[in-house]
Design a protein that fits this description.
heterodimer, A: 575 residues, 6% strand, B: 443 residues, alpha/beta, Alkaline Phosphatase, subunit A
């Protein structure tokens, strides 16, 4: 039985839509200065507050994209990146707190050697060098200076000082003298840049004089923050030029760059990276399911399930420029054959993606009904209403559910757990009747119980252990008993758009928000609503707002754990 | 003993130019004056490691009923009988919470390793293995090696909050890291110093030139992170330096063969097999001084271990399985607890299989084994089971059961640090703060 309708191929649809987007963009540009003046005067944005500058480690995708952009996509990055640190729900915030273990340094070292060797290899060097001296036995000062200062600009996201240029040229010269080869000299000098802290970390600097009160980032720090936010990669030459010429300090210059970056191919990648982070897809690396219980859940399914959701998100938010909230009700998605097995629906195309719409009776609506969500928030051998309910609260509504009390009396749960013909509802009944459990479980379980119509990998079912599953559930006062009902309730929940707006800003600045930024967040939330909950527009507003580049003095105002003894709680927790 | 060391011969032979040198394994370097001297004329190093299993134990099957040397090994410890003399059993040592919320399976584990209980993973001090690594790990190729055998990449080794040392989860990638690129066979007949490595080491030193300048531009917490970066960079420099020296030969060492690729799997049988493979590789790496510090995670603290075809994991069982009325404990949970101790014996087997000096590698190790809680069902952090195996080259005493009687478990952490040469008189915070060395443990 076909449970979905096939749509025209993604590319054709995308072409049609993007040509519409181009027209809109052209019209917007046509309004030109007038609109910009209106924007800057009447935005109503609260005064910039700012937080501390942040020292951020590149994420794996950022590192890879940066190397591909500075050099070429075929330059190999041979490294095993460790599991990223997630803080306040996002790896993007974790990059501002995570350290650098010896393991990580080993990996960066290996990657750097491979990259430098590939760039300076006899085959590829002509693509990256401004000059190709035939006599490799001699040292060519000008050539080295030109190459190293240029590659230094691209890797450090700022021009090198004269001292730095001399140092890297000196390293190349010394190596050439030791090893007798000009290109090997350049290679080891480049290697040194690739392992230095100024490449592996984005070290933000404030403009001089901003130590007390509110100031702002310097031009090159602005360029890096902007670029990683809107393209998930390093600033390109044009952006660095604009930074160097002070254009990012003017509203006009900034908005020109923002438009340019958002129109680039990389913008989709930035949206994808943000949602992969928010949905915690890095956790799939550790996901193991019992093959005896779920034989069809293999590594193809794991990869495709993530891509399905990310394709759905990018298509919905960027290609169609649609309302963020409708992500939780949309039946439009993309499928492959391996996914078809889990969804119990045939996918005719072999080895490619099909753009499809789930039929009304397919019991799928919204990304929370995707395999990626349902399988990730389950146990290895069974589903979990609690894990799923927890994830909806935490991931989509930015709500904090406390850890279970350590001293729970589980005896009542035990009595219910091993009876025949029991469903999860029977097993979890104690969660709602035992006072110490009920406080938290009543916000997680009712929601998760409707999702019980999917097993531990997300396949639809109506029975568990032979018994019919009662799918009635609720979310903050709205009752439902179907996937569509839950989808509607989640879509209409006031925290749904607020959560994504707040996360987007935090990801952009790489830290938790400061107390004073609350007003700005409220404003952002209102603007998001006025813009019809369009995520690209939200990102544009953040990038253009004065709060985005704002810096306030006082390093340790930052929302990160302080070294104290005794009882603390994580800053920013909500209960 | 003769003043001619192997190294001085090599220095003479090398001069300056890159030459291949045949290294005879001279008899005069074989030990003729004491057990702590290896074939190389160097002292055998002591090593430190931790070994963690998740979800605690079944007290009636684990805690010996008497203390001292002549205790009877209860059912779950019984497989360890062959190691009775090389093992010290510690029961009844507590993590003291002082009102800190007990995050199940995390607070206890990190509390006993840092001395400061925290309600999450944001540790407030380095874990003791890192402190010990700073003392004994600096000269080897890797400051420490972390492995996890149930597919989870986490470890409970932290340099600081946000800076865990990630675990290797695959035997094959562990093999490649230890014995692949950059590994020097200590018994290779020919040593050729690589001029390129020299050049690489030389350029790398330039990275630290701006260190002070950079440190001044960032705030205090970021300074700490940059400092960690530079510490990690030193390991890379150390690795290059080691490659420029002929490695000291190691008696009875042969490079292991690559292990097979094993899929990610938390089924108990597969985990035990992965664990055996990784323990074997780790033992070989310790033997030839690739590292002196290690951390092994058999199963995560909220254990994802499972039995083939069963819908419920070890951790979930601890909460859902009814207590067997006849046995007085949870039967299925107990199965995992028993298996975990068999895995612990496998680990000791791997260390003890390698001869070293007049004993074995295990004799020159101090392995601290512990769980995250005592009774997982209630997440109790009182009486977390712990063990010390090996004699650290004669620095610690084993062969007994000691009851902690509710003492803070930091007494154990303090004592093993002291045994490893860390200068520390008191350790831990608030009720966990202690100056009381476990004297029974110190030789």
């Amino acid at each position: 039985m076909t449970r979905f309708l096939a749509l025209p191929s993604r590319t054709r649809l995308a072409e049609a839509l993007s040509s519409r987007r181009r027209q809109v963009a052209a019209a917007l540009l046509g309004l030109g200065a007038l609109a910009l003046i209106a924007l800057s005067l009447g935005s109503g944005e609260p005064d910039p507050v700012g937080g501390p500058t942040v020292l951020r480690r590149l994420t794996e995708t950022q590192y890879r994209a940066t190397i591909a952009d500075v050099f070429a996509p075929d330059i190999p990055v041979n490294a095993r990146f460790e599991k990223p640190v997630r803080y306040e729900g996002l790896v993007a915030i974790g990059t501002g707190t995570s350290g650098m273990s010896p393991f990580a340094m080993e990996q960066y070292d290996t990657a750097a050697q491979g990259i430098a060797a590939a760039v300076l290899s006899a085959k590829r060097r002509k693509d990256f060098l401004p000059c190709l001296p035939a006599n490799a036995k001699a040292f060519h000062e000008e050539c080295a200076r030109e190459f190293l200062s240029d590659v230094g600009l691209m890797l450090f996201r700022r021009p090198l000082s004269a001292t730095e240029v001399s140092r890297y040229v000196g390293l190349a010269r010394r190596t050439q003298e030791q090893l007798g080869n000009f290109y090997t000299g350049l290679e080891l000098s480049l290697y040194t840049m690739l392992v230095s802290p100024e490449f592996l970390f984005r070290i933000e600097q404030a403009k001089p004089g901003a130590d007390d009160g509110t100031g702002e980032l310097d031009a090159y720090s602005k360029a890096a923050r902007l670029s990683y936010f809107l393209t998930n990669s390093t600033p390109d030459r044009e952006l660095l030029r604009a930074a160097g010429e002070g254009e990012l300090d003017s509203r006009w210059g900034l908005s020109r760059q923002v438009d340019r970056l958002m129109a680039s191919d990389r913008f989709e990648g930035a949206v994808e990276a943000f949602f992969a982070d928010m949905l915690q897809f890095d956790r799939f690396d550790e996901l193991s399911k019992d093959p005896a219980i779920y034989p069809a859940f293999n590594s193809d399914v794991i990869a495709d399930a993530q891509e399905q959701t990310l394709r759905t998100i990018v298509n919905h938010l960027v290609t169609e420029d649609a309302d963020y909230r409708d992500l939780f009700t949309t039946r439009e998605t993309f499928l492959t054959r391996p996914l078809g097995v889990i969804y119990r629906t045939p996918v005719p195309t072999r080895g490619d993606w099909e753009h499809v719409v789930f039929a009304n009776d397919a019991n799928r609506a919204g990304i929370q009904s995707h395999v990626s969500f349902l399988a990730l928030h389950s146990h290895p051998g069974r589903s979990s209403p609690t894990l799923r309910g927890y994830a909806v609260r935490q991931v989509f509504l930015c709500q904090h559910v406390p850890d279970p009390p350590a001293n729970v009396d589980f005896s009542a749960v035990e009595e219910n757990a091993h009876q025949k013909n029991s469903t999860a509802r029977d097993r979890l009944v104690m969660h709602s009747t035992e006072p110490s459990c009920a406080g938290c479980h009543k916000v997680m379980d009712p929601l998760g119980l409707t999702m019980e119509q999917y097993d531990g990998v997300g396949t639809f079912r109506t029975r568990e252990n032979g018994a019919f599953i009662d799918t009635s559930g609720s979310l903050d006062g709205t009752d439902f008993n179907t996937t569509a009902g839950l989808a509607q309730a989640l879509r209409n929940h006031p925290e749904t758009p607020r959560c994504v707006a707040e996360r987007m800003f935090k990801a952009a600045v790489g830290r938790d928000i400061t107390w004073g930024e609350r007003a700005y967040l409220d404003w952002l939330d209102e603007q998001f609503a006025d813009d019809g909950y369009r995520v690209p527009e939200l990102m544009r507003r953040i990038a253009l707002s004065r709060n985005f580049f704002a810096v306030s003095g006082g390093d340790d105002a930052r929302g990160k754990p302080q070294v104290v003894t005794g009882r603390t709680s994580e800053p920013g927790d909500k209960s | 003993m003769t003043k001619i060391t192997r190294r001085s011969i090599l220095r003479g032979a090398l001069g300056g130019a890159a030459v291949g040198v045949g290294i005879p394994l001279l008899d005069c370097f074989l030990d003729n004056n004491g057990t702590a001297i290896a074939a190389t004329g160097q002292r055998i190093p002591v090593r430190f490691g931790t070994w963690i299993w998740g979800c605690g134990f079944i007290p009636e099957k684990w805690v010996p009923t008497t203390v001292g040397r002549e205790y009877l090994m209860p059912e779950d410890l019984a497989p360890l009988e062959p190691y009775r003399d090389k093992l010290a059993i510690f029961s009844g040592f507590d993590v003291k919470l002082d009102g800190v919320p007990n995050k199940p399976h995390v607070t206890g584990c990190l509390g006993l390793r840092t001395g400061v209980p925290v309600p999450n993973e944001s540790v407030k001090a380095p874990t003791f293995d890192v402190l010990i690594g700073q003392k004994i790990g600096g000269d080897s190729r890797f400051r420490s090696i972390e492995v996890s055998t149930s597919g989870v990449e986490r470890s409970y080794s932290y340099h600081a909050a946000g800076s865990p040392n990630p675990s290797e989860t695959s035997p094959l990638t562990l093999y490649r890291r230890l014995f692949g690129e950059g590994f020097q066979d200590p018994n290779a007949a020919i040593f050729t110093p690589d001029t390129r490595t020299m050049a690489q080491k030389s350029v790398l030193s330039a990275v630290s030139e701006d260190r002070q300048k950079l440190m001044r531009t960032v705030g205090a917490s970021d300074r700490q992170r940059l400092d960690e970066y530079f510490t990690s960079l030193r390991q890379i420099e150390q690795q290059l330096a080691l490659r420029l020296e002929p490695p000291a030969p190691v008696q009875d060492f042969t490079k292991p063969a690559p292990p097979p690729e094993v899929p990610l799997n938390s089924e108990m049988g597969a985990v035990m097999e992965t664990h055996r493979l990784m323990a074997g590789l780790l033992a070989k790496a310790l033997q030839c001084n690739q590292t002196r510090v290690f951390n092994v995670l058999l199963s995560d603290t909220a254990s994802n271990l499972r039995r083939e075809g069963e819908t419920t994991t070890h951790h979930t069982l601890t909460h859902e399985e009814p207590v067997d009325k006849q046995l007085g404990y949870q039967r299925e949970v107990s199965w995992f607890a028993t298996k975990s101790m068999i895995a612990w014996k496998d680990f000791l087997d791997a260390l003890d299989a390698i001869p070293e000096g007049d004993g074995t590698l295990l004799d020159n190790c101090l392995v601290f084994a512990h769980s995250d809680c005592s009774i997982a069902k209630s997440h109790a952090v009182e009486g977390i089971p712990a063990m010390v195996a090996g004699n650290a080259g004669g620095k610690v005493r084993t062969g007994y059961h000691l009851a902690g009687k509710g003492d803070p478990i930091t007494r154990l952490g303090l004592t093993v640090q002291q045994a490893m040469g860390v200068q520390v008189e008191k350790w831990g915070a608030l009720s966990m703060e202690t100056r009381r060395t476990v004297t029974e443990l110190i030789a």
